[in-house]
Design a protein that fits this description.
- Keywords: ATP-binding, Cytoplasm, Kinase, Magnesium, Metal-binding, Nucleotide metabolism, Nucleotide-binding, Phosphoprotein, Transferase.
- It catalyses: a 2'-deoxyribonucleoside 5'-diphosphate + ATP = a 2'-deoxyribonucleoside 5'-triphosphate + ADP; a ribonucleoside 5'-diphosphate + ATP = a ribonucleoside 5'-triphosphate + ADP.
- The chain is of the alpha+beta class and about 140 residues long.
- Helix content is about 40%, strand content about 20%.
- It has a single domain, classed as 2-Layer Sandwich (Alpha-Beta Plaits).
- The longest helix is centred in the first third of the chain and has 11 residues.
- Bound molecules: adenosine-3',5'-cyclic-monophosphate.
- The site of adenosine-3',5'-cyclic-monophosphate (CMP) has 8 residues, from loops.
């Protein structure tokens, strides 16, 4: 199925100079980049994007981390790109992420209260539609 997904290159990816490496992996896999923007996320964008995590112990640290510096938001498209990008990204925890994945190759754990794992990818078609509307209202 042709799909679109919302990818975020989180502030740690931008600060570490990994934008090119991550976008290269997305394009090398054969996915298209439909839209791309770099900006510092607003509190409103993060509250909407992470609504499902509100109240969790790591939520305040998550919002602090994600709003601390610029991030890059991307709409990627391709056949089964929603599960396909999550496969490219690897497991949430960088220690558990398999070698060959973005997180497995490029991220490692630290002792911060929130897991910094370079990228986000939508987990379902419903999430993708919701998240694309937050970051790219013009593509909703
Ligand atoms: P993401 O896919 O963007 O969705 C929620 C984020 O919260 C996740 O990536 C991690 O950055 C972070 N996260 C998820 N679970 C935990 C956890 N148990 N402890 C700390 N941070 C977490």
């Amino acid at each position: 199925t042709a799909q679109r997904t919302l990818v975020l290159l989180k502030p740690d990816a931008v600060q570490r100079g990994l934008r090119g490496e991550i976008l290269r992996r997305i394009e090398a896999k054969g996915y298209g980049i439909l839209a791309l923007t770099q900006r510092t996320a607003t509190a409103e964008e993060l509250a909407a994007h992470y609504a499902e995590h509100e109240g969790k112990p790591f939520y305040p640290g998550l919002v602090e981390y994600m709003g601390s510096a610029p991030l890059v938001a991307v709409v990627a498209e391709g056949v089964n790109v929603i599960p396909g990008f999550r496969s490219l990204a690897g497991a949430t925890n960088p220690t558990e992420a398999a070698p060959g994945t973005i997180r497995g190759d490029l991220a490692c754990e630290d002792d911060l209260p929130v897991i910094q794992n370079l990228v986000h990818g939508s987990d379902s078609e419903e999430s993708a539609a919701r998240e694309i509307a937050i970051w790219f209202p013009e593509h909703a």
